[in-house]
Known about the structure:
Elements: H1 13-24, H2 27-30, E1 36-38, E2 41-42, H3 43-60, H4 65-74, H5 91-106, H6 111-119, H7 132-149, H8 155-172
Antiparallel strand pairs: 1-2
Amino acid sequence: MRFFQIHRLHPDLAEYLPCVRELFSDRAVLSMDEYLSHGNITTLEHSIYVSFLSFLVCRRLGLDYRAAARGGLLHDFYLYDWHDNTHPRWHGFKHAAYALKNAEQRFALTKKERDIIRKHMFPLNLSPPHCLESLIVNCVDKYCAFAETVLTFHRQAIKGTTTSILGRCFAQL
């Protein structure tokens, strides 16, 4: 499957949206759209893309796709602009812990979801993923960050996909 064709997979949204609907109804999750992640992609757009791709991979492999979708959406739930100097230094090393703390305060997380959020920055964070879903989200996150940063022609596809997912989610709320 080509990266830029993912936005055409709307039938998969019928299974994806129930996994993350609770998260999308939270204002703090939606506030991730206020912070840039990579290039002109917001943290929310990046997280939706990581979440949706991880969901697809885990579902295809017969793994816990719900945990991958939820953990993928919350993996960067740190709620600050890491580009300015008023926020914690060493963002790459520390933001997974901030994301996990924020997620635990707002949602009931499974053990896998906690592992996904906490371990998504391996090997910068030295503790490796404990489950396949964590490893998949970790790899998908690296792929998406690369695509958002280097492959500038994919940015419009990412924005189209995330807009479609959000639109369908809110239409069903």
